[in-house]
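Appendix B. One record, verbatim.
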Amino acid sequence: MAGTRIRGASGRMMGLFASGDPIADRLVLLFHPTPGSATFDPDPIVTSRWGLHLAAIDRPGYGSSDPLDDPAEASMDELVEDVATFIGDTMRTADSISKADYTKVGLVGWGTGAAVAAAVAERHPERVDRLAIVSAPGERDIRKAARRALIAPQSIEALHVDPDDPALESRLGLRNRLDRMITEAYLHGKAGIEADRYLMSDAAWSRDLGTIRADTALFYGAHDDFADEDDAAWWRDHLPSATLHLAPRSGHLVLATEWEAILQHVAPNHGSIAEKDRDHGQPRLPQL
């Protein structure tokens, strides 16, 4: 996974990480939870062979993004425009220097990151055609999750992941990738969490979810004690056309255990890239 820094429409520097195939015709953005960073790939082996370009941006105070001078300055409107500008710039760059032709993109929001993904889809329908909401609490609990992260230990437990979740052992390298994500999330101390606390407290992101035109799917784990079927019901009430996928054996790590199904939703049919053209049919060994 490659990382760099870009300047958003707000003028702030943001950390950007990308994986998959940079010249693929399908771009998908992944929005991380609280606390989290853009360095996380749910399953690098699947991602590298899917036929998409996966990108993620650190929110203010996380990873490679600059912290805010005052966390209370965190603005969902500003963040959404930073993301939308990145999408537009990426589309233009891809069109000018490669064969890639991004028309619209897919978004994946995990946990509190679902609020950002939904806000981008709602405010920029011209950019987004598919949306996946993964293990996301309802609007009130998203605010609570951001606040509670301030007192959570600096470990995967801050992500509401059960340390005994079978996925941590059955998914190659998953525990290591989550540990790396947490380490990156705290590079500026709790600056990212502080900013998220204000970002998620603005309920404006949830007021017009019913206007989202993107094809939307909800992914939840049947054994998730943090984001449960009541939370899924909240999203279904606000996104009446969304389909619900309840993984019967998964917990809060449904993002990793159902990554192939999630990618099939946001990047259907491997981004329309044939098997023989995906990495020339040869498996790669990405960092796990």
